[in-house]
Amino acid sequence: MADDYPIDAKVYATQDLRKLSILDMLKFFEERGAMKVSDLHIKVGAPITYRINGDLEKQKGIIVTTQIAKQLIYPLLTEENRYKLENDYTVDCSHRLGQLQFRINVFMENDGICAAIRALSLDISPVESIGFPNDVWEEIVNHKQGLILITGITGAGKSTTIASLIEQINQSRHCRIITIEDPIEYIFEQRNSIISQREVGRDVKSFIDGLRSMLREDPDVLFVGEMRDPETIAMTLMAAETGHLVFSTLHTRDAVGTITRILDYFPEGRQAEVRNQLSLGLRYIISQKLIPKKDGDGRLCAMEILNNNFAVANLIRTGKVEQIYSQMQTKTKNAPGENMITMEAYLARLVKAGQLDLLEAQKWANSPKCFVDAMKRISDTTYPH
After folding, report:
1. Which CATH entry fits the domain spanning 12-121: 2.60.120.430, 2.60.120.1440, 3.30.450.90, 3.80.30.20?
2. Architecture label for domain 127-377
3. Mean pLDDT over residues 180-190, rounded?
4. Beta pairing, strands 49-52 & 55-58
5. What residue spans of the chain are helical by DSSP H?
6. What is the mean pLDDT of residues 103-114?
7. Dist CA 90 CA 103 (whole Å)
8. Residue 60 CB partners (closer than 8 Å, separation 6+)
């Protein structure tokens, strides 16, 4: 980092006459906890803003100018990243501070330079604490091959869930694990497994280049940070079919919509082929949301889980995707071949357990009608694990 933009330069004036540096702003995440304070937004024309418990909260301070924005953002960028920003108008990178890893996106917009900074704890959460409604995670980490998709909107905790699953494999199995990320978020230590983490733009040119080389590197477990285009999706599906356990993510709101989104990437003439690949290679889709707790102290992870059992695979292969939701409503036993739950059913469980406010749950349900039905069906004694 260049000396003309020191990370500890106090350049942002607050209402109480203090001045803060970007270092002070990042330390705020550690003080409050990354589960409560998830993001920092720096934008010209607006005050400094944090996302706290899922809601944006503007800080009481001056309006950010172009000069202040540069003084806050540039200390986090290498010379190479600054050059990329100037030429591509956007750059993804990361920064480590204390017990937190920060995922940073810097971009140009109408008012000038802008940054979205997300905090990730270096301590990877035990998989038992993530919020799985059943023991499906035990089945997932013991799979030898197949595709596991973790989906949800931005900020839904997808990276945390995948990191916890991979760390469980790292501790319990002797595997060769390779990841392609943009950028690297959680840092894994070498335990029983051997792990290589590759960052797009630094260690490999693109996800597709990384996937091509991955398959020649004797992997057992792969993590593809995001399936962004048809070529990456096709290569990921092929890797899942050919004896690898593959984790990846998509920005979709539910499990059934994830299948539809994948198919929509391809022209109609290829969709039958992709449906067949999905029916054979897919193992689980976990679609999740982070929702404010009833007591206001942090957020809960609510999950929808689709298990690609024989019946679901047949529905995917024959193009009857709209019938999958009913499988998720009925195949709910905590047992191999079932282990499914809808988002509405899990939200109902959280409400019954007193962990989630009813009105909040209604807001986050994908289908209000199905949520009402789930509330009627659920037993008062049924709680999430």
Report:
1. 3.30.450.90
2. 3-Layer(aba) Sandwich (3.40)
3. 90
4. antiparallel
5. 22-32, 66-73, 79-88, 136-142, 158-172, 207-214, 230-241, 255-264, 268-281, 310-317, 324-330, 343-352, 358-364, 368-377
6. 95
7. 14
8. 14, 15, 16, 47
Whole-Å CA distances, 128 to 49, 132, 160, 341, 384:
32, 7, 12, 17, 12
The number of helices, as runs of H, and strands, as runs of E, in the chain is: 14, 15
The angle subtended at Cα 227 by Cα 212 and Cα 221, nearest 5°, is 55
The pair of three-digit structure tokens given for residue 199, joined into one six-digit string:
């960052």
Round to whole Å and give the CA distance between 331 and 284: 14
Give residue limits of the domains in the chain: 12-121, 127-377
Using CA atoms, how far residue 168 sits from 128, 188, 383, in Å, is 10, 11, 24
What are the tokens at 151?
Answer: 């989906």
pLDDT digits (tens, 9 = 90+) for 281-295: 999 999 999 998 998
Q: Can you read off the two tokens belonging to residue 344?
A: 């509405």
Contacts 24+ apart (CB under 8 A), 138-143: 139/336, 139/339, 140/165, 140/283, 140/284, 141/165, 141/168, 141/169, 141/172, 141/173, 143/245, 143/283
* 3-class DSSP assignment, residue 294: coil
190-200 burial, b if ≥16 CB within 10 A, otherwise e? eeebebebbbb
Q: Report the candidate in 29, 30, 22 with the shortest Cα–Cα distance to residue 48.
A: 22
Looking at residue 298, its pLDDT comes to 81
Q: How far apart are CA 14 and CA 224, in angstroms?
A: 41
Share of residues in the chain with pLDDT > 90 (%): 77
* Cβ pair 94, 104 in contact under 8 A: yes
Question: At CB < 8 A and 24+ separation, what contacts does 18-24 make?
Answer: 20/48, 20/61, 21/72, 22/71, 22/72, 22/73, 22/75, 22/76, 23/75, 23/97
Pick from 127, 316, 319, 173: nearest CA to 237: 316
Contact (Cβ atoms closer than 8 angstroms) between residue 356 and residue 300: yes
